[in-house]
Amino acid sequence: MAKKHTVFAIVYDFDGTLAKGNIQENSFIPDLGIKKSDFWKEVKKLTKEHEMDEILAYMFLLIEKAKNHGEVKFDRDSLKAHGRDVSYFEGVEDYFLRINKYARSKQIKLGHYIISSGTKEMIEGTTIAKYFKTIYASSFKYDQHNVPQWPAIVLNYTTKTQFLFRINKGIDNAWDNSKINTYVPKEKRHVPFERMIYIGDGLTDVPAMKLVKDQGGTSIGVYAPKSRKKTEVEKLLGEGRVSYVAPANYSDGAELDQIIKATLDQVSAKASVQKFANKISR
């Protein structure tokens, strides 16, 4: 009889966690002929003037800027194509195959998920999109020509936590609200929080990181090596909001890689002890 694997989830923010910078900055905003600093400054202005959610403000501005430019193609396929220009942190592109292999050696069935305020369509166009079971990210509603009309899903600081519960209960979509509000005993949930790692890079991830940590899981704050953001992330550790902090280096043997593997080791050992206890109690 084949060994039963323990289900485990690693959840990632995208911008600043797996990829450098914001995904819209790689090629889309430059194609519009706008400096990225000017774009985000305008987002901040819209947010304040209209009391808008900041994610809604940037999505609205992307639509408006593309309409006014005229020469930049703006549909589902072109948005997806911008994902090809993403620059990843060291080790990311071969990390998933390596960590999946390591998990299998520990009898762990590992699922990878994205929960991001970034543009879903662009993330879907990246070379690593194939490794994620589900990508939860801000996305658009399209017309019959596949041109964005309106935000369909918006993920901000606190709404990210909703999607952790979707993973927790095994709901692989963003629209089914009946299942997410249905009571499910902890022992019957698809991925208990204690078998979950959340990896994020800063304040936008704090509610999600704190939730996972408080529920018995592991939260890891990452920062670009040699960046000023190290201090911000280390502060989260001091405040008890994350379990660990590490440079965003996913290479084999790097500090982040070691933390993830050690967490998988602990889960594997706990599962083995539980199986043994169940066996002798029969």
UniProtKB/TrEMBL annotation:
The family database entries (Gene3D superfamilies) matched by this protein are listed as:
HAD superfamily/HAD-like
The residues forming the signal peptide are: none
**What's one Pfam family the UniProt record gives for this protein?**
HAD
**Listed name of the protein:** Phosphoserine phosphatase
Origin species: Prosthecochloris marina
